[in-house]
Amino acid sequence: MTYQEQTSAIGQLVASYKGTWDGIDPESVARMRLQNRFRTGLDIARYTAAIMRRDMAAYDANPAEYTQSLGCWHGFIGQQKLISIKKHFGSTKGRYLYLSGWMVAALRSEFGPLPDQSMHEKTSVPALIEELYTFLKQADARELGMMFRDLDKARESGNEIEAQRLMQAIDNYETHVVPVIADIDAGFGNAEATYLLAKKMIEAGACALQIENQVSDEKQCGHQDGKVTVPHEDFLAKVRACRYAFLELGVDDGIIVTRTDSLGAGLTKQIAFSKEKGDIGDQYNAFLDCEEVADLSSLRGDVVIERDGKLMRPKRLPSNLFQFREGTGADRCVLDCITSLQNGADLLWIETEKPHIEQIAGMVDRIREVIPNAKLVYNNSPSFNWTLNFRQQVFDAWAAAGKDVSAYDRAKLMSVDYDDTDLAAEADEKIRTFQRDAAARAGIFHHLITLPTYHTAALSTDNLAKEYFGEAGMLGYVKGVQRKEIREGIACVKHQNMSGSDIGDDHKEYFAGEAALKAGGVHNTMNQFAA
Prior knowledge:
The chain is α/β, with parallel strands linked by helices.
């Protein structure tokens, strides 16, 4: 219903109580309902899943329609990101939030800062999802509240044209609520544990779950060593657990992102079960690094398998883990991705060791030979040294083309000495267009940065501490923070308004009328920022 229709319907409801509800203002109720559009996390999950499905279809039609997100470790950070997006671009279309398990471990665990090894409390993940959406819904309430106040002013001044414009804007209001792609790690246990956690995450509002094929008890950050994968059937049981969770909760179009760490994982904890030659278990085992058993007496507690009629012993480390043959990572990634898509996954995530479009595209091309519309979520990771990687890529391209590179030391291209060179300028341009180019060439539907706000918080705090505790003193804050907030129109410069003070004043007036004791009066120092 439109704003006016909503007000009229509530007016009829109030009137039906024959005077006992006359203290309730129908328009105030309509405003409160519009400010609380999403009543539950499941409402959000259903709404945002539909957005992602539309965006995926748009990308299939035109790879220029890729999507993006930034990882946010607090509801306020996510809220400010979406407010900024609406301010600068007028729409949140194609912009999501990413919930990073790394940042939950490092910043949100009751144990304190932890490495990304699934040691943090699993409940902290759905708690952060709920927190993110609490802050996004509050951003809606705040912005709509300001529109309602402007509407009242237009009416009071008799400006009917402005009043109509504002009511139309209210009817067409775009929410700050956007999809969250949420990291469920390796499921925090077996398939049942994965299902239980998936339900909590979906109930908190997650429409997209990202799950990886590492063992849950040996899980490592995707950019660290020592990663151990599991056979496909073990992983697919967890994928199905996520799908069952979505379907049980009525989010029929929920999105599952399956991540393969096989490119950097050279170990497995288990030998896959195989019924017949060529099945998925046999294909997994075919990558094992084995040696033929020539002398049965050499076997002491060893595991052996049959391969092409021969008895083979997989190489096992003192950790009791089995190793894959070197150079098989890309082949294992391709098999992982095809198998996942054939068993209910919607999007893929290939964790790589560097941001190289052709490396990613080489694997995606092979996947698309089997599944033509395969699409990726890609981690534009802060673990990559983007400057060095792209300068080296340009250096190598120039050298291959016969261009003189004698003025450059490839190993030292990160040096500030090269910042103003032609090579650095070309590398920066490739970084600038990386997402666009990778979306077109390598099938990347969604680009995210996992940990950006972790780094921005550290950088901005360092800058403030250096100035404030140094010679600049208070000017360090005023010039470096507050003046910039004012000049650049940062919403939280009016931090009382940002925290909901004006919303509270509106409610006080609804509830108590002229007797309301409001905080936003003439003596509120936030009025200094109206100038």
